[in-house]
């Protein structure tokens, strides 16, 4: 595709918009994960986590044809994201997490979460790119600074307003629930039964927040 055509720029704009739709969720994942690390390691986690996420998202977009053939992809991804939401919620702050293992564990969490949340958007990005990989990469490179800026801002907010942790976990649980009910294998059933669909979404969100709070309270009692 020619770099100087209206088609190229309109496609690029569409990809950036699609990527930014996920920016809020991704910033929450990065921010909540990095909050447990020392200040000097937070920037490393944000940089390498974001870099790894871009690489995997690009590869996923290239593999979109094969992804379409994998049954249950959104369902598996949604279940994994439920666990990530819970894990982020119950992680304790204030422990010695200065080791390399903790640093790379945080980076791994960011990459996995971004990849899982990006699965249902890969098709949209691939469609907007019209098969042009350069467009996909450019779109990601444009939207990434916004994600990084958002994650560092969230770290600062979380330090002042801990309730943001619960809001973030709720957003991730919502994303996970939507992925599960949008899985093609079960989407027809939930479309025909919208009440059950919304009940499941609410149950997943409430379960993540309630179980996370119970675990957190247990941690506080054990530390006392």
From TrEMBL:
Q: Which residues cross the membrane?
A: 12-33, 45-67, 73-90, 102-127, 133-154, 161-180, 195-212
InterPro entries in the cross-refs: Integral_membrane_TerC, Integral_membrane_YjbE
How does the protein's chain sit in the membrane according to the entry? Multi-pass membrane protein
Keyword Transmembrane helix: yes or no? yes
| Keyword Membrane in annotation | yes
Q: Highest taxon of the source?
A: Bacteria
Keywords, comma-separated and alphabetical: Membrane, Transmembrane, Transmembrane helix
**Record's GO cellular component terms:** membrane
Pfam families in the record: TerC
Q: What is its main location?
A: membrane
Q: Which NCBIfam families match?
A: R_switched_YjbE
Q: Entry's PANTHER family?
A: MEMBRANE BOUND PREDICTED REDOX MODULATOR, SLL1022 PROTEIN
What protein family does this chain belong to? Belongs to the TerC family.
**The protein, known as:** TerC family protein
**Organism (species):** Paenibacillus alvei (Bacillus alvei)
């Amino acid at each position: 595709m020619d770099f100087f055509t209206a088609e190229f720029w309109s496609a690029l704009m569409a990809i950036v918009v699609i990527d930014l739709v996920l920016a809020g969720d991704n910033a929450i994942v990065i921010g909540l994960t990095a909050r447990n690390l020392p200040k000097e390691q937070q920037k490393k986690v944000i940089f390498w986590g974001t870099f790894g996420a871009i690489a995997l998202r690009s590869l996923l977009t290239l593999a979109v044809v094969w992804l379409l053939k994998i049954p249950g992809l959104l369902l598996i991804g949604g279940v994994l994201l439920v666990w990530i939401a819970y894990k982020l919620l119950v992680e304790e702050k204030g422990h010695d997490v200065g080791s390399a293992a903790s640093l790379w564990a945080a980076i791994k969490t960011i990459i996995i979460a971004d990849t899982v949340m990006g699965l249902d958007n890969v098709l949209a990005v691939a469609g907007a790119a019209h098969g042009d990989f350069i467009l996909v990469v450019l779109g990601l490179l444009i939207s990434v600074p916004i994600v990084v800026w958002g994650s560092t801002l969230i770290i600062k907010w979380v330090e002042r307003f801990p309730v943001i942790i619960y809001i973030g976990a709720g957003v991730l649980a919502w994303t996970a629930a939507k992925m599960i009910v949008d899985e093609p294998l079960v989407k027809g059933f939930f479309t025909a039964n919208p009440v059950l669909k919304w009940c499941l979404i609410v149950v997943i969100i409430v379960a993540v927040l309630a179980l996370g709070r119970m675990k957190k309270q247990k941690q506080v009692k054990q530390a006392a």
